[in-house]
Structures are given as C-alpha cells and as structure tokens.
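I am hoping you can look over what I have pasted underneath with an eye to the fold:
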Amino acid sequence: MKGFLYVCLFSNGHIKVGRSIDPESRIASHADRVACVGIELVDRAIFVTEYQCSAEAMLIQRCIDACAQKHKNEWFSGLDFEAVCEWARIEAGQATQETEREGSAGQVERACAIVGGQAVLARAIGVAPSFINQMVHGSRGVGYINAVAIERATEGAVTRRDLRPDDFHLIWPDLTAQPTTEAA
C-alpha cells in the first residue's frame, strides 16, 4: 500500500520517525502531544513509499543502530536530522526497488558461502540463523553492527561497503576512497 515515511525534529533534540497514509495530520498530532510540555516541532520531512511497513522497519533499525538513546518505539535522541532524512529517503526507495535489496542480500549470501553456511555466519556474528536467512532473502537489511561483524567474519572478503552500498559513506566516511571487494 502506498504511504509515507516521516521524520520529525523537535526542539528538545528528539527525532520521531514513523509511517502514515496521512503524514501531515500524524505529524500535527505528535506536535500537539509534546506542545503541552513546551516542546516544539522544529523541522519535518516526508517521503513517499509503496511499502511503508518494511521501509519504516528498516528506518527504525537504522535509528536504533546509530542513536544515543531510544525513547519508546520511534523516538530517538543523539541522531543528526539530515542523516535520518537521508536514511528515510533511502529506505523509502529501497522498499520499492527490490533489486537494490538483492544486492546486499547477495553479499550476505556470498559471506555465508565464504564462512561455510548461514549457521556458521550466524554463530560468527552472534545472531540467530533465522536472522541470517532473513538477510539472505532480503526481508531484513544489514545493520551497521552486523556489517562490521560480517566483514570481520569473512576477514574482509565481504566489506561494510559491499553490504551497505547506498549509505556506507554516511556511516564510514573513511571507506569512500577504498574500492569494493568486487572491484579489487
């Protein structure tokens, strides 16, 4: 179902992310709720997506991976508003472009082959085998922490850059000058 992802920045520095088919009224509702304690909506961004549930889940995971503190389900502090907007833009686009997701999934599958299978990779990075299976099939993205762990588990054969081609430069700026393992 076509919908929207939204990102809101409030005067206390908290960022709220979410999804809605009517983001303007949803954002207004959040702003009204916090106004009673003197907090104001400072900025907001809205992104169109076809599969809002999966896009929202991926955006929330990115925020969880990077935030200083999580407040409730979709409220975060310690994040840069512009970076979260970029993540939302990417996730809104990826949710409608399965080929992009297949790229990361293919890299996870390659990592599995290198280390000896999904169960071996799961053990090596400290997650459940079902989690690896979801990444291989593209239903779960590769979070920052898992990207680093997979790179270590494969001894650099599959890199963070390979696993997160759309945003590695935002997370690890030092990798922008390095070639991918496929190009090397």
Q: What stands out?
A: The first strand starts at residue 3 and ends at 10.
